[in-house]
Write a structure and sequence with these properties.
The protein has 335 residues and is α+β, with helices and mostly antiparallel strands. Helix content is 20%, strand content 33%. It has 5 helices and 20 strands. It is elongated and about 150 Å long.
């Protein structure tokens, strides 16, 4: 059994701090913090690397390095004073081609014009005849709407909202079948079942002239300056020069009429499922476009010359776009 003095020596040894060359985690943290503080304040104390730099042999080696590599200058090896050189033009060109090809593959969403489905104004139209082959609506350049209702014609002023009666036939069976304003909006052409074509002065509400020649009702009218074209159910089209007494200039076949904006071509459509293109100087059609139903709707492009849109009946179900200069079909849309 150990004596009491030996136990005291053991306790004295254990109570002394442990001396070890291995640093504890807390000692390493403290030394790293002291190094950071020394770098921050420019102190070389406790930093062996900076102490080594101040040694004479290190100073000599640094001076030799400065003289051989930096040629005695005091600048650094890595300098940010000069800008990086510009890339070559070939590098830019390749990127341009790459980006341009990518832009071509990107799909651009088409923007469609919004059309309001709610009517702005509703007008009563009693005695409006349900007939596919008549045209009883025409809007003038002076913002006046002419409507044929039975044997009467009414004028509605869109600016004031007033309604005036322009024409009323003596015979109730003489039905208005076509109305068309002149370009200036001062005169209105009227076609009826009595086979004649009338011209009315809108401001004076007075009939200026009545022109005969058709053998059936007049169902379509179209103005080209002083030339008035009328299409009848007798499958003939008359061009009337309203300035002279002998007003018949040319006679064509078919009905459903629309002059081109420049006044050089006349488009006609009829129930023979064809649309014909006429010139003023020719007695025969220069182009004929076939459809699957009677051609009623005709509209020229106001901004692009010689482009015509046509619409036929329910058996056709297409809107067609034609180039009347070449006589070719440009596009076709299923409705």
């Amino acid at each position: 059994m150990a004596n009491y003095s030996d136990m005291n020596e053991v306790e004295e040894v254990l109570s002394q701090p442990i001396k070890s060359s291995i640093l504890t985690r807390w000692e390493r943290k403290a030394r790293e913090r002291s190094k950071l503080d020394g770098d921050k304040y420019g102190s070389d104390d406790g930093n062996p690397e900076r102490q080594d730099e101040n040694r004479p042999d290190n100073k000599r080696s640094n001076s030799l390095l400065r003289e051989t590599i930096l040629k005695g200058g005091g600048s650094k090896i890595l300098s940010y004073r000069n800008k990086a050189p510009k890339p070559s033009e070939a590098h830019h060109s390749k990127l341009r081609v790459l980006y341009a090809s990518n832009r071509e593959n990107v799909r651009v969403r088409k923007k469609f014009r919004y059309v309001n489905g709610t009517p702005e104004r509703i007008l009563d139209a009693p005695d409006l005849i349900d007939d596919y082959y008549i045209n009883v609506l025409s809007w003038s350049s002076q913002d006046t709407l002419a409507v044929g209702l039975g044997s009467c014609i009414y004028l509605w002023d869109a600016k004031t909202g007033s309604i005036n009666s322009l024409y009323e036939a003596e015979n109730e069976d003489d039905i208005v079948t076509a109305v068309k304003f002149m370009n200036g909006g001062t005169h209105l052409a009227v076609g009826t079942t009595s086979k004649d074509v009338q011209i009315w002065d809108v401001s004076q509400q007075k009939k200026m002239r009545s022109m005969k020649g058709h053998r059936a009702r007049v169902g379509s009218l179209a103005w080209n300056n002083h030339i008035l074209s009328s299409g009848s159910r007798d499958s003939t089209i008359f061009n009337h020069d309203v300035r002279v007494a002998n007003h018949h200039i040319h006679t064509y076949t078919d009905c459903g009429l629309e002059w081109s904006p420049d006044g050089t071509q006349l488009a006609s459509g009829g129930n023979d499922n064809m649309c014909n293109i006429w010139n003023m100087t020719d007695a025969t059609a220069v182009h004929t476009f076939h459809h699957s139903a009677a051609v009623k709707a005709l509209a020229w492009n106001p901004t692009q010359k010689s482009v015509l849109a046509t619409g036929a009946g329910t058996a056709d179900r297409h809107i067609r776009f034609f180039n009347t200069a070449s006589g070719k079909l440009v596009n076709m849309v299923d409705t």
